[in-house]
Every structure is written in structure tokens, then in C-alpha cells.
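C-alpha cells incoming
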């Protein structure tokens, strides 16, 4: 909830947004987070749409 720097606040906001998107799309948050953290680094920039929670399954 509290961040020491702007970068930490941005990172926290991204994780919170991802978890909220999972909840909204009825996707299990751990599976989504695992997918995003393992698959996203292997993808080219601009292909982010496939990493969204509603696209996992």
C-alpha cells in the first residue's frame, strides 16, 4: 500500500490492476500471474493483448 519511490508505486499499481482484472474476468489470479510472468518476457513488444486474463484459456 505504501511505496518509497514512484517506481515502487507503479509496480504495485500494475500488480493490483492485474489482480483486479483477474477478479473481473473470473480468472484464477495465481494462474494468471504465473502465465504473465513466464510468458510475457518471451513475447515481442506490442503483443500484450494475448497476455490479458481473458485470453489465458
Amino acid at each position: 500500500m505504501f511505496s518509497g519511490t514512484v517506481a515502487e508505486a507503479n509496480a504495485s499499481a500494475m500488480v493490483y490492476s492485474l489482480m483486479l482484472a483477474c477478479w473481473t474476468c473470473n480468472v484464477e489470479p495465481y494462474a494468471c500471474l504465473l502465465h504473465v510472468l513466464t510468458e510475457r518476457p518471451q513475447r515481442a513488444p506490442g503483443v500484450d493483448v494475448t497476455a490479458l486474463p481473458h485470453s489465458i484459456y
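note: The chain has one domain: 6-55.
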